[in-house]
Amino acid sequence: MLPRSAVTGIVLAGGQGRRMGGVDKGLVELDGTPLVAHVIARLAPQVATIVVNANRNATRYAAFGYPVVADAHGGFAGPLAGLHAGLSAASTPYVVTAPCDSPFLPADLVARLAAGLVSGNAQLAVARTLDQPHPVFALARRELLAHLGAFLEGGGRKIDAWYSTLAVVEVGFDDEAEAFRNFNTPEELAAGPSAPAPPRGSRS
User: Fold this and answer.
1) Is 35's pLDDT higher than 50?
2) I need a surface site. Which of 34, 101, 142, 168 has the fewest CB within 10 A?
3) Residue 172 predicted with pLDDT over 90
4) Pick from 117, 42, 49: nearest CA to 86
5) How far are the Cα atoms of 100, 112, 149, 151 from residue 145, in angstroms, in the given order?
């Protein structure tokens, strides 16, 4: 297993939020609290520290108490650009990513991804429920920074295309499938549960 001190959490909040009406999704509220705050509350106990990747509203994100970094590759280049920004800012040997619109993420996300990464001797571990991988929930070695930078510089943007060049292991979370629920539209947010379940103790 990896010690908590070895992992930086990267909250991906750099998207355009098109399906949410173009608003900054991380700042949209669920039960009176921004989605990103729910994500931070569940991720923080599992990691040494957090970096927020955001391309708008940096001051508002900084108010949550963690460094905020923007994509080095402009034009809202997607989650890989956010991972690259987070890897560049991290000082730990590993990083874990989580999107800003998934407020119920597993309290044992890092522990289980770490177990899969270590046992599989992989470069990157990705969460999966049933036959559905969740590539924005991933634990990566920081040494991938240069490799990812070269991929982005070459015009690459698709997560699957980058993953295909790496030793990747998928880690099953079938027992926690609902924890990966995210909110993409105002309608989904309105229909969502009134509050996330309280975080359980981390096993990382």
Assistant:
1) yes
2) 142
3) yes
4) 49
5) 22, 23, 6, 10
